[in-house]
Specification:
alpha+beta; 5-stranded mixed β-sheet; 32% strand
């Protein structure tokens, strides 16, 4: 099991019932960011239509900045990053209506 904090910022919280910060316990050995994203899609996003706001081609949608402990996820291995207790994963939408 791994305990992480997940933040949905920049209006992205609308896909998770408008709750910006979540403390999550993943019951997966050697959990990766991919496992977390699957958990978010399967257990946190209640409207199936909202999954496409968050995911595209089995990855985080372009226009969403993904940070692992305030570091760009591209520097950490993206979906293959192995989560550690206490990690803070932030998803921030850069796409705003206007």
């Amino acid at each position: 099991m791994v305990k992480v904090k997940v933040e949905f910022l920049g209006g992205l919280d609308v896909v998770v019932n408008k709750v910006r910060v979540h403390d999550i316990n993943l019951m997966v050995d050697n959990a990766t960011l991919r496992d977390l994203v699957n958990y978010i899609c399967n257990d946190m996003i209640t409207n199936p239509n909202d999954i496409e706001v968050f995911i595209e081609d089995e990855s985080i949608r372009p226009g969403i900045i993904t940070l692992i402990n305030d570091t760009d996820w591209e520097l950490e291995g993206e979906m293959e990053y192995e989560l550690e207790d206490g990690d803070v994963i932030s998803f921030t939408s850069t796409l705003h209506g206007g």
